[in-house]
Design goal:
Length: 235
């Protein structure tokens, strides 16, 4: 159960575990989920530290499985006392329950999923109600995201805004334009939004007076930060 949840996390992150051992698979999955922001999730704090301790119990299940499991061709099943079984079950479920609570936020924040929902797939884009994109961008963790992913998300936000989806414009463009913080709204995201406002997914120009004004506003903080421009050019 622990391994299955951990592998789902790695699959969603675009880096399947393959034949990796149990311990590094669980540790990597925990690190990804521990950094996941979301509404009412516990960030680094004494409460967040509880999850770290739970992950140590989860990793220890590897030795227990190897020593007491029945999948190693043993002629006789090792004896398990009732307390041993209860401890193993309780320790496993503690981490699994924590991980599953974060899994939805993690999945919604994956760049591929968010981009698909913004610009569409064969079934078309989804609707964004008030607050939806704000939550999805928080789950995407833009400040810690790879600049390539931030830029791709920004392009999708800009292109959806150019289609006159007002909630996306308010929460993905206007909110960033009103906040010059390049940590909260990274330069790569701003560049992506500006590009998406001016070109459709088929690279057809969507330049209007409104789109051009929005693009200039959201990118303005970057023009005042030469280091950020250098990073973008280097990427």
């Amino acid at each position: 159960m622990i391994e299955a949840v951990a592998k789902v996390v790695l699959d969603l992150n675009g880096a399947p575990s393959g034949g990796a051992d149990f311990d590094p698979t669980v540790k990597r999955a925990h690190d990804l989920l521990a950094a996941q922001p979301g509404h009412e999730l516990a960030h680094p704090s004494p409460f967040g530290n509880l999850a770290t301790q739970a992950s140590k119990m989860a990793v220890s299940m590897s030795a227990i499985r190897n020593n007491y499991g029945g999948g190693h061709g043993r002629a006789r099943q090792p004896e398990l006392q009732a307390e041993m079984l209860d401890l193993a079950m309780d320790g496993s479920l503690l981490w699994v329950r924590w991980a599953v609570r974060r899994l939805g936020y993690f999945a919604q924040g994956r760049p591929e999923t968010l981009i698909r929902d913004l610009v569409g797939d064969p079934t078309g884009p989804i609707s964004f109600s008030a607050g939806d994109l704000t939550s999805r961008l928080q789950s995407a963790n833009l400040p810690r995201s790879d600049p390539r992913h931030s830029r791709s998300i920004g392009i999708a936000v800009g292109q959806r805004t150019a289609q006159e989806t007002f909630n996306v414009r308010i929460e993905g463009v206007n909110a960033a334009s009103a906040d010059n913080d390049l940590e909260h709204w990274p330069a790569a995201y701003r560049l992506g939004v500006a590009s998406g406002l001016l070109f459709s997914p088929d690279e057809i120009p969507t330049t209007t007076a409104l789109n051009l004004r929005l693009a200039l506003r959201i990118y303005l903080p970057v023009t005042d930060a030469p280091d950020e421009i250098a990073k973008l050019l280097g990427a």
